[in-house]
Amino acid sequence: MKKFPKLHWLTIIRNNSKTFFLAALTSGLLMACSPPLQPGQTQALVAKVRGQPSARYPLPGGAERWAYASTFGQQTWMVDFDAQGKLLRSYPALSDTNFAKIVIGTFDKADIAREFGPPAHTDLVGWGQYTFEVWSYRYQQADTANSLMHVHFGKDGKVVKFYPGPDPYFEPREIRGL
Asked: Which pLDDT does position 37 carry in this prediction?
């Protein structure tokens, strides 16, 4: 289970910010230069063009969904294939519109993972019987604000609440206390 990074990770990132920036820029440019995915393409071709996915999820009828998470996790692209391994569609998963489709009390961890891919962070919050597992997804709220969507799960693994908040990674150092 991934935990929120400790201060030492923030220090490492800050001290190596040029390296991280160049790595993110390079991966972004490589993805931008790759040809767009077209319906009907095979899984083998998609894997050759985009590389191996961050995660794979089974869909009804033998279909499969691949998740491609970006370097800093603000974008996750879902790629759906039919039972024969042909591309059906490709779309960005992390958006206000998609998060609004979460149904409290119905969606569980498998549903959230299948719809949004692996979370950027997981953590336990609360105390005693009011402890919740929280999955946090980095994304651009309203396509402009650096945010985290926090999804809380009850003891039964079902979503009990979800809400956006600011992403402290992108806050000025003075606010973060560094």
From this structure: 87
